[in-house]
Protein: Protein ZIP4 homolog
Amino acid sequence: MRIAELTSPEIRPSHHDSLSQLLSQLEASINQCELLSPEKPLPTNLSSDLRSTLSQLSSLVPFSNSIKLQIWKLSYRLWNACVDLSNIAGVRSSGDKVGEEVVKLRQVSADMLLLAGNVAGVPSPALKSASFYYKTGLIWHELRRFDLAASCFEKATDLTSKLDAATISDAGERKLLLDLNIARSRTAWDVSDRNLAVTLLNRAKNLLFGSAEHYKALANQYLVFGKSALSKIEGCGVKEALKLMNEALDLFEKGLSTARTRNGTEDLKALRSKCLRFIAAVHLQGEEFESVLKCIRVLREGDGDRHPCLPVLAMKAWLGLGRYGEAEKELRGMVVNKGVPEGIWVSAIEAYFEAAGTAGAETAKGLFLGLLGRCHVSAGAAVRIAHRVVGEGGSGEGARARAKVVAELVSDERVVALFAGEAAAKDRTPMHAVLWNWYMF
Structure:
């Protein structure tokens, strides 16, 4: 060997010296982070400098327990500095560059814990490290950086997958395992990887630990996915939505059997009823009218549900079955339910008249006038009903019958009063147009 190839111990820094130097660099950068303010532009090189130092540190593993503990303490200092910055800055937005820089620093903090690994004397180190990745992933998701969110959630999953969930007794740690699966599932859904999203939710059923809150959280996510599936244009959207909502319903019901407090029980009952209402709406969209009525029967008789949407769903189901008398009963029930918003009952009357035709004109008029006596009704609602009953005019016995009903409707003094004053000026013109078109026919 030539002399030039020999390494001088005086020139080459020792492992300990390199480690000390890198830890000092790391601490100096974190000191700088602790002095940051959202009022001033954040240095864009901070996260990259920290990451570069961390990369050099990784070449010096394994670490002694004291070095690991030092890295953990530095990580927590960096994390707390990020929390303070976020709290001062307030609400983040997708275009907030300050928010993006801070979340990059959070991710460095999580990477520091991962690099350090387990530390003697620190309880549940893997879960603490996973929680940093989980919280960072949530913010990336909020900023719609789904690729970065997914990466964080996957790292957290790798850390927790080595643990035996059955041995975890802490409630917060158990909730983290469930929340991590749900968050990862939500990100997969938002990038249209729906098979993975549902698979992750199904896996999360093993992380319920008999907790009513866990059942509630998982069921809610199934319900959210079900509602989202309904908006799909493809024909399979209704079928997929129904499957997801039935999963949610099953979890709500199982959660009820584990609830230990009155508030917990009431919350789950309310959510189960909400889920059943959505299932009824899905059945209605699929023209499964008998199934709609079964859901409503369970809601009314079992849960005592009096939600304003129920008579509308029931009425449309009866109309679908051609049972106009039953549909009319539901409509008349709406007249005494003050919780039904104007737009809902006007749409219900329109739907009834559309299905029943001229034979339903008298009923539509009577219901509308009945509503005038029990709540505030706008002039715009009167225009909608009159227009629906008149239709496109025409001739014959049916047209004359509809015209007679409209004449009686608009001449009622309570309806006339709706169009008095400047506030109703914008509605007088369309009503005049409806009546003029009817007169011309």
About this structure: The radius of gyration is 32 Å. The chain is about 75% helix and 0% strand. Residues 65-89 form the longest helix (25 residues).
